[in-house]
Amino acid sequence: MTELTWQTGDTWIVATGVVCAMACALIGNFLVLRRMSMMSDTISHAVLPGLAITFIVTESRAVVPMFVGAVLAGILTTVLTQWINRFGQVERGAVMGIVFTTFFAAGLLLIEQAGDRVDLDPKCVLFGALELTALDRINLSLGPYEITAPRALIVLSFALILNLLFVAVCYKELRISSFDPELATTLGFNAQIMHYLLMVLVAVTAVAAFEAVGSILVIAMLIVPGATAYLLTDRLGVMIAASMAIAAFCAASGHLATVVLPQWLPIKSVSTSGMMATLAGLVFLVTALFAPRHGVIARRRTKLKRKPWNSERKNSFPFDEKRTCA
Amino acid sequence: MIRLFRLDRASRAAPYQNDVGRPGAFPEHSPASPLSIHDLTVAYHRQPVIWDVDLEIPEGKLVGLIGPNGAGKSTLLKACLELVPVASGLVRVYGQPYSKRRELVGYVPQKESVDWDFPASTLDVVAMGGYHRLGWFRPVNKRCRAESMQALDRLGLSDLAHQQIGQLSGGQQQRAFLARALMQNAKLYLMDEPLAAVDAATETSIVELLREMKQRQKTCLIVHHDLATVTDYFDWIILLNMRVVAAGPTQEVFTQENLRKTYGGNLTILSAAADAVQNAGE
């Protein structure tokens, strides 16, 4: 049979992957709920020129300046998207398409310019290098404890804690501004402020995850767990918990699959981040089909049970009260 | 008591140039009025949506806001709530800018404006009406939940408190919105079509609630579309079609002539309106 070749490196990879997936899934829920999943696409791509410019200016890969630069770029895209949308009278999806491709392309050009001095590889930009992040370990002293951990893991842990704090503290504000932004604003919880706060955190998360999973797969990390959990439950709290559990599961089993699969199948090697995202997609597919109430099969079944007039005249049928209570 | 339009601008306000209103001295807006609107103009992309609206709404009345589609009724409400940018003019709530009187104003948006698939229970949604009393960062507490249950009970929805909002019928969703408005505990309510697409039983219960609110000296400005029920429901009406065509006590303002001015040449609506006026006269 197969034997599992598991090393310390693998543990670090799994830890990094799980933390990354959970940080992304947590904040991603609100993108899904606000129907602005495309915004993750925009931001994750747009942080690239921020990273490149910061690198060229500071000539180092120090974490803090990189973050500041990338987050600024992320906010700039958010503002630009809204601005072009409002004044340019162009459809929102098109605006995002314009903004993020332009930013991303500019970022690629900048990386090329700095090419000889940077270890930013365009391939890594797209898919990340989760396997390599485990090698780049640093020492961190927390009081009496000395921890040696991958740099990416530490950065991602901070992102996860930040996201957890944000969602825990602003839970009610996030709920009302996602559900009914106008009411939120009239009650004094400015929906615009919540929107930008959320975008800042998406940008922070995207930058933190950038090294590990790249700018495309981070979208899968942000959106897929939330979308899956959305189909599984009707409670916001449960949705958030479920999305994080799904994310952690996909990350852990994704790396396990990359260790195990090459022994079973005639393939050489599998990228961990790729496997994680593929698994997440499969989990979504299964959920979309079999989810208890919102799945395709469950919906078809309830439709068959209903009498034909029910689905058509949902709001006008005089006795609809009893039907919906059931 | 209400000036109909400003003559110097009337020629620029496109559709109803011929309407020469009764130019009369307009009394000073009183600070006691729940909502007074001064020369309000709102534009999207430089196209005016509402033009030079000048109104003063009396306290403790059910006020109907009536006009054809695209007349700017929702925009007028949103402008009062500072949700859309105002091109010119100003709005006073009890004599102060809206931002200083936020807690006195309740808002019931159009039912279609929110996503009913959102993972929240009826109770969650109703509790949102009390969020401003909790303030920033404070989570929903027991008291807020208990008050929400009372509001739900008042609208006969307590059985559905823990249902996901998407499972409610249209009428129930509308009532959930009204329960949320009750939670706001405001003095002035701006409601965008609370009676749209509800069944007869729901309509009766909502109207009953509105009358009770009136008894408690609440002022309600309600966007309404059904001309047949206007005289039944409202003490005061505003006829709006980009500009205020007429505003005042229902029996004075709800005339065929005013409706013709409001709805223009739309004959089917016009004949419906004529019937409504006739019925009201009988």
How would you explain this protein's 3D organization?
The complex is a heterodimer of chains A (326) and B (282). With 326 residues, chain A is mostly helical. Chain A is built from 15 helices and two strands. Chain A is 77% helix and 4% strand. Chain A has a two-stranded antiparallel sheet. In chain A, a hairpin with a 2-residue loop joins strand 1 and strand 2. Chain A is globular and about 50 Å long. In chain B, the strands form two sheets. A six-stranded mixed beta sheet of chain B has the order 5-6-7-3-8-9, with helices on both faces. In chain B, strands 2-1-4 form a three-stranded antiparallel beta sheet, with helices on one face. In chain B, helix 10 packs antiparallel against helix 11. At the A-B interface, helix 8, helix 9, helix 11 and helix 15 of A face helix 4 and helix 6 of B.
- Roughly what is the average pLDDT of chain A, rounded to an integer? 84
Terminal residue distance of chain B: 26 Å
- Main sheet of chain A: which strands, in order across? 1-2
Strand content of chain A: under 5%
**What order do the SSEs of chain B take from the amino end to the carboxyl end, as H and E?**
HEEEHEEHHHHEHEHEEHHH
Q: Do you know the CATH topology of one domain in chain A?
A: ABC transporter involved in vitamin B12 uptake, BtuC
What characterizes the major β-sheet of chain B? 6 strands, mixed
Average pLDDT metric of chain B: 85
Instruction: Return Rg of chain B in Å.
Output: 19 Å
- Return the CATH class of one domain in chain A: Mainly Alpha
Order of strands in the sheet with most strands of chain B: 5-6-7-3-8-9
Task: Extract low-pLDDT stretches of chain B.
Answer: 1-27
- Most extensive chain interface and residues per partner: A-B, 38 and 45 residues
Q: How many helix segments of chain B? A: 11
How much of the polypeptide of chain B forms β-strand, as a percent range?
A: 15-25%
Task: Report the order of strands and helices of chain A.
Answer: HHHHHHEEHHHHHHHHH
CATH homologous superfamily identity of one domain in chain A: ABC transporter involved in vitamin B12 uptake, BtuC
Reported CATH architecture of one domain in chain A = Orthogonal Bundle
Largest sheet descriptor of chain A:
2 strands, antiparallel
Total count of helical runs of at least 4 residues of chain A: 15
